[in-house]
Recover the amino acids of this structure.
């Protein structure tokens, strides 16, 4: 099979190699399932504890803590934007990172909406 796991899983970039994939299709399916679970988690996070900020220059930024991870979304007003998931050793680390990022954005002129 040809591996379709690229992007979110950089260790699995078989399409970028000239050699055949070094793993089986079952691993590819695991990556696809993991991406699906992450997408569902992001959608749930969007509807609950996310902090949403907007900048006068038309940018927006959003962060939420989900367990020991932070989920950050950002972009230009009217666009879907980008998503960044960052994992930490524990929930306290994720909370501290989110607080630090929030303070930084507020200093840069973002306002809570």
């Amino acid at each position: 099979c040809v591996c379709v796991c690229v992007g979110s899983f950089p260790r699995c970039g078989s399409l970028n190699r000239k050699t055949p994939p070094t793993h089986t299709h079952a691993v590819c399916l695991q990556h696809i399932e993991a991406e699906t679970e992450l997408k569902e988690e992001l959608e749930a996070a969007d509807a609950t504890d996310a902090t949403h900020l907007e900048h006068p220059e038309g940018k927006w930024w959003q962060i939420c803590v989900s367990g020991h991870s932070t989920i950050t979304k950002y972009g230009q007003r009217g666009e879907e934007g980008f998503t960044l998931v960052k994992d930490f050793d524990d929930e306290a680390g994720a909370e501290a990172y989110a607080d630090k990022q929030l303070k930084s954005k507020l200093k840069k002129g973002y306002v809570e909406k």
Observations:
- The two ends are 47 Å apart (CA to CA).
- Confidence is low (pLDDT under 50) at residues 1-21.
